[in-house]
Design brief:
215 residues, alpha/beta, 6-stranded parallel sheet
């Protein structure tokens, strides 16, 4: 049996979503019935300080040996990193992802991918020109239910789909929970439900083949 392929990750930012992602990443792949690939966190960067990155590594129980950086430039220049997970606020996704691509790194960018279509187009063009992997991290797209819904549509089992109504919401008091400065509601950081929640509702119905007349 051949050895599993090792994906060497760099983590950009140390907030809540990065914490959740890395704690999953360091789990034994066999718990997901996977044997052909394994993941290693090689470096973490915090824009505030290297000490914050070190604390993040400890909190996520990342095995010893991972580097801790106090700048994103150091992270993307680390030769031990193959792919970077961008977990910064929405408003910074374009510039941070472009920094990774320009450094020759593959990128998994947290949703929302960018704040507008022009930014997304430029990132895609850059990734193609450099032959780099680039994807938006939308986990709901890979739910078994999401896969089955798309298959039903592509197979024509639901007929022609003209409209989809989807809802993803939560009952929290937003002002009480986030105030006015948190990145979830801060418009200067591209906060708000359109970029943060809409992405979770639509992926199950996103077409695998956009040219399919069923869509």
């Amino acid at each position: 049996m051949s050895s599993p392929y090792t994906v060497r990750w760099g983590i950009m930012a140390t907030g809540m979503i990065a914490d959740l992602f890395v704690k999953d990443l360091v789990l034994d792949p066999s718990t997901r019935h996977v044997s052909d690939v394994k993941h290693e966190v090689k470096a973490v960067a915090s824009s505030s300080s290297a000490d914050r990155a070190k604390k993040f590594l400890q909190e996520c129980k990342v095995p010893a040996g991972a580097a801790a950086y106090g700048s994103y430039e150091e992270l993307v220049n680390d030769k031990n990193v193959d792919i970077v997970y961008v977990a910064t606020p929405h408003s910074h996704h374009y510039q941070n992802t472009m920094l990774c691509l320009e450094a020759g790194k593959h990128v998994l960018c947290e949703k929302a991918f960018t704040t507008n279509a022009a930014q997304a187009k430029k990132l895609i063009e850059t990734a193609k020109a450099k032959n780099l992997f680039l994807m938006e991290a939308v986990w709901t797209r890979f739910f078994p239910l999401s896969v089955q819904v798309r298959k039903f549509i592509e197979d024509g089992n639901l007929g022609a789909v003209h409209r989809v109504i989807a809802d993803n919401s939560f009952g929290d008091n937003v002002e009480e929970k986030y105030g006015t400065s948190h990145r979830m509601v801060n418009m200067d950081l591209a906060g708000g439900c359109l970029l943060d929640r809409k992405k979770l509702s639509t992926p199950p119905f996103s077409p695998i083949n956009p040219s399919n007349p069923q869509f």
